[in-house]
């Protein structure tokens, strides 16, 4: 308002002098008349800035002419920045949906399932998923935050992508838990519960924008398990379906960073999980893995429990197919031991259970806030071994947790010696930033390293499968070994059995004679006169083929293509609906990593 008054005064003075000096015969009376006719500054309100432009002001054409004679000062930039600016076309000239995308996933089976869903959605919209990182236009890096080495690999991959001028989208637990880390600045992030919007994030990233979707999915204020289970996906192994039954957990372990990313327990409804399993079998799947941060806690937030879900799933499993149950912590399985034993004895369920103990010292478990004691773990193991003959129990141990004494560690060694676990995941403790354990008094690095070495030596001192040589076993063949010399199968206890590389056997359940045993596997020869079971209701999908393209999803894509035949621009509509003008915005802001375990999978597709 002050500016307007000043301008009006200037114009009034100018008008007065021009009229006074250049108008002939102007009398003092005339001057007074003119002054009376001049409007006051407060008589009217300016509706537009153009209202104060007079005839004497320069016109736009004149201003443009003057501008041509102005030479702007150029600020020098690095040659690398100039090159990148020159090479990058304007965002409106880029056509999303035709680029090549390379996806890298670290961590647990839950993370692998998320990676499969993201790949499926991108492929369904026209993007090409490639195994060649060099030829990719964009890298989608799906991270794990359990241990420092996994995050170090993730960070190095980001740096490598940037050095190669690749577009980058980040996913997984690392950016979800700590999105404000320096090395994540300026990069697009897709949250662990937002994977159904990966197409939008990739599309905008390819255009040169930075997008962050980190919110939680809720229904009437109640947190949901995550993205829908009926989304398109590309299974890493077309014969294996990974189903996340819940996300998050009920614990607050002092060393766990995953809790920061996955949050509290949120379970999927039983009907949705059963429907997903049925759909998988209709697409040629013969093995289902149930996964989550803690499968034993399933259903506590929605008024049901794990045994109820498992019995419903068992009804949907066809002959020749198998179900594998994921990790469960001791406190929750204790409540369902009788029912769990019955389920694990079912012929279509692997007699296998992963129960992390982490330490055999009650004082260490208390510092970890694990909510059970060693006696609870032993009760679970002893009961299942008695009621489910031959069951394989897998467990985890952390070496060198803060405050762990030599006596504490010796208790852990005694536990391993007592049970001789055939599957043992040994993890040297790494303090994760932001966790209570990171602030505790740390065990010296050399001591942690030595304890890890001692436990590893104990584990390698026994062979769990030697007594099975000569047995006749029923196995399900699902993948190829890393060395490509064998196919990998699993017997009813989920123990690995290598069989001859005969394409006829893939996806089949066959009987074999065990003729050799190693530390992590057995070798079997198919029995010629034995019956071969084919679990598949239909032919398995080809490797890289998109599954789960429901009619709703197909119709959505077709409608989009009718509106724009080149690509699907769903993000623009989402932004318009949210009334968001800044694309560089954050929309919101217990699993284990077995990459260094001592029971390596022999298959390529793990």
TrEMBL record:
Segments forming domain Radical SAM core: 235-466
Domain of life: Eukaryota
Catalytic activity: N(6)-L-threonylcarbamoyladenosine(37) in tRNA + (sulfur carrier)-SH + AH2 + 2 S-adenosyl-L-methionine = 2-methylsulfanyl-N(6)-L-threonylcarbamoyladenosine(37) in tRNA + (sulfur carrier)-H + 5'-deoxyadenosine + L-methionine + A + S-adenosyl-L-homocysteine + 2 H(+)
E.C. number(s) listed in UniProt: 2.8.4.5
Main location as per UniProt: membrane
One Gene Ontology cellular component: endoplasmic reticulum
Cofactor: [4Fe-4S] cluster
Protein localization: Membrane
Domain TRAM: 466-528
Keywords linked to the UniProt accession: 4Fe-4S, Iron, Iron-sulfur, Membrane, Metal-binding, S-adenosyl-L-methionine, Transferase, Transmembrane, Transmembrane helix, tRNA processing
Any Pfam family: TRAM
Similarity annotation: Belongs to the methylthiotransferase family. CDKAL1 subfamily.
Chain's role: Catalyzes the methylthiolation of N6-threonylcarbamoyladenosine (t(6)A), leading to the formation of 2-methylthio-N6-threonylcarbamoyladenosine (ms(2)t(6)A) at position 37 in tRNAs that read codons beginning with adenine.
Protein name, UniProt field: Threonylcarbamoyladenosine tRNA methylthiotransferase
Species of origin: Anas zonorhyncha (Eastern spot-billed duck)
Organism lineage string: Eukaryota, Metazoa, Chordata, Craniata, Vertebrata
